[in-house]
Design brief:
The complex is a heterodimer. Helices cover 0% and strands 48% of the residues of chain A. Chain A has no helices and twelve strands. In chain A, the strands form three sheets. In chain A, strands 2, 5, 6, 10, 11 and 12 form a six-stranded mixed sheet that branches. Chain A has a four-stranded antiparallel sheet with strand order 3-9-8-7, with no helix packed on it. Chain A has a two-stranded antiparallel ribbon with strand order 1-4. In chain B, 0% of the residues lie in helices and 56% in strands. Chain B contains no helices and eleven strands. Classes of the chains: A mainly beta, B mainly beta. Chains A and B meet through strand 5, strand 6 and strand 10 of A and strand 5, strand 9 and strand 10 of B.
């Protein structure tokens, strides 16, 4: 079945540091890939997505590239801010069924 | 105008009680979900409905019963609440198969005492 593996957190960085959160997946077919962000006390919201191999999703300075050869969709940001502190979820679309698959989430803490 | 709204936001109740959480979406989506998020932020899908029909019913106790009166609403009723049911419950919706972007509600924090 489908699965998503994310690096465990928390990831703790100083403001303006470079961020990478690793995500790899196992899936049949070619699902869409997503990163969601959950700010404290809120629901998840879509951060970015990619629908096919080599696509790059980007939003708010974050980006991730759909790598079919390594089955990865790592999240990166060049310079994090305190306001980026949140939990980040990698997810893959259901590929024809109704079951989206989420990773376990990675907590990011950014210090001033 | 909130896209996916769920009520209540907080729910504190005693063991053994029965409670409901309501969810409504105004996005015109045909698929709705209930997720349970534990204290470590792990998201577990519980149910999925497509056009009012139950599509996914993961291994959850039968004390949990979803109800979808129409495709814009998916409510969750929980009987005989237990301490282990304490969690944040999220409603979400999306359009069609392959889960194009899912929209989540703000969550309901359920505490069973």
């Amino acid at each position: 079945g489908n699965s998503v593996t994310q690096m465990e957190g928390p990831v703790t960085l100083s403001e303006e540091a470079f961020l990478t959160i690793n995500c790899t997946y196992t899936a049949t077919g070619y699902p869409s890939l997503f990163w969601y962000v959950q700010y404290p006390g809120e629901g998840l919201q879509l951060l970015l997505k990619a629908t096919k191999a080599d696509d790059k999703g980007s939003n708010k300075g974050f980006e991730a590239t759909y790598r079919k050869e390594t089955t990865s969709f790592h999240l990166e940001k060049g310079s994090v801010q305190v306001s980026d502190s949140a939990v980040y979820f990698c997810a893959l679309g259901s590929g024809g069924s109704y079951i989206p698959t989420f990773g376990r989430g990675t907590s990011l803490i950014v210090h001033p | 105008d909130t896209a996916v709204s769920q009520t209540p936001k907080y729910l504190v109740t005693q063991m053994g009680n029965d409670k409901s959480i309501k969810c409504e979406q105004n996005l015109g989506h045909d698929t709705m979900y209930w997720y349970k998020q534990d204290s470590k932020k792990f998201l577990k899908i519980m149910f999925s409905y497509n056009n009012k029909e139950l599509i996914i019913n993961e291994t959850v106790p039968n004390r949990f019963s979803p109800k979808s009166p129409d495709k814009a609403h998916l409510n969750l009723h929980i009987n005989s609440l237990e301490l282990g049911d304490s969690a944040v419950y999220f409603c979400a919706s999306s359009q069609g198969k392959d889960s194009t972007e899912a929209f989540f509600g703000q969550g309901t924090r359920l505490t069973v005492v």
